[in-house]
Amino acid sequence: MSVAEPAVADPASADTVATDSVAPSSPPAPIASETAAIEVVRLSHTYKKHRALQRMEFNVAPGEIHGFVGPNGAGKTTTLKIICTLMKPQQGAVRVFGRDVVRQVHAVRSSIGFMPDHFSMYRQMSVHEYLDFFGAAYGLPTKTRDGVIKNVLELTDMDGRQDDLIKGLSRGMTQRVGLARVLINDPSLLLLDEPASGLDPRARIELMDILRALKGMGKTVFISSHILSELAELCDAVTIVDRGTTKFSGSIDELLSAAAGLVTYRVVLDPPRDGAPEPENLSDDLQAIPGVTEVRKCEERPGWLMTFDRDVIPVNEILGGVIALGLPVVGFAEEKKHLNRAFMELTAGGVREA
Ligand SMILES: Nc1ncnc2c1ncn2[C@@H]1O[C@H](COP(=O)(O)OP(=O)(O)OP(=O)(O)O)[C@@H](O)[C@H]1O
């Protein structure tokens, strides 16, 4: 990593670093609030003879958390590397806050923080030494670095861990240090390639909470994953890609309506008093409600998952059917997990379950 030209990622992972940049002679012009955080326009990329991206097209609005989802080999990492200026677009254009990733590479780099899917850490360093190293690489003056490091450790819920050695950290903690690293230059846009991969459920939830807090600070978060359900609760919008093409790009609500009529609702019942068992045949009773196609117990949270086709039977009739059974209903809400079904329809490859 060069100090004068802070890399936004592990340079070793770059295939073709964009080098024909034009150094800005004056500070970049202010960004209009309506300018898209990311614009990908008819982006194509071929590795030797293998076409990885074919006229990929989508926009990311500023301030949103935007999921980038696709099966293995769909082209997510290639797209991310082009957005973060580690590779040049062969065809098409990419702009970050209105700035071209080839012609305005310095301005783009100063506005982004990229966390690759695999990144090497200096395992013998303490957390503070590691972040201080990257702070220096980003050109932060020595006297301000400690304050910045304190801030990014707070943001990533790592305060008090600055003296821990990186080699002793769990995978979840290591990911947080990686996130702290990309926050060092206070980027407006975070590009995160599969940040939740390999994390246990608790670490995933904690990571998602941190990303929500970063959104609350006005940052735009672009996050890739194989797993749509992992992002559904987090994201405002999602782009689904398969075999290098965009299959869907829009809000989660638009994705829901683009999906087939099949939906899953989670019904939560007031638990029986004094540890008494749930009513017998509960599953069969729910299954017997007209229009219900599948019933199963929710594994992660309390409640039962009921699947039905809302184009065939209105949601309120299903709820009416549950209440008519005399069950003490305390919750009835749509499960975003059935987005997986939309994903399966939109992609040929399918989704890897968490
Ligand atoms: N350096 C490379 N040389 C040749 N082919 C490559 C190279 N990098 C990626 N590819 C191929 O390009 C396609 C897109 O790969 P990419 O890594 O962008 O997909 P991805 O969606 O990130 O996949 P994954 O989720 O598995 O990381 C894949 O078929 C992949 O094998």
TrEMBL record:
<feature type="domain" description="ABC transporter">
    <location>
        <begin position="38"/>
        <end position="268"/>
    </location>
</feature>
<dbReference type="GO" id="GO:0005524">
    <property type="term" value="F:ATP binding"/>
</dbReference>
<protein>
    <submittedName>
        <fullName>Vitamin B12 import ATP-binding protein BtuD</fullName>
    </submittedName>
</protein>
<dbReference type="InterPro" id="IPR027417">
    <property type="entry name" value="P-loop_NTPase"/>
</dbReference>
<feature type="region of interest" description="Disordered">
    <location>
        <begin position="1"/>
        <end position="30"/>
    </location>
</feature>
<dbReference type="InterPro" id="IPR003593">
    <property type="entry name" value="AAA+_ATPase"/>
</dbReference>
<dbReference type="Pfam" id="PF00005">
    <property type="entry name" value="ABC_tran"/>
</dbReference>
<keyword id="KW-0067">ATP-binding</keyword>
<dbReference type="InterPro" id="IPR003439">
    <property type="entry name" value="ABC_transporter-like_ATP-bd"/>
</dbReference>
<comment type="similarity">
    <text>Belongs to the ABC transporter superfamily.</text>
</comment>
<keyword id="KW-0547">Nucleotide-binding</keyword>
<keyword id="KW-0813">Transport</keyword>
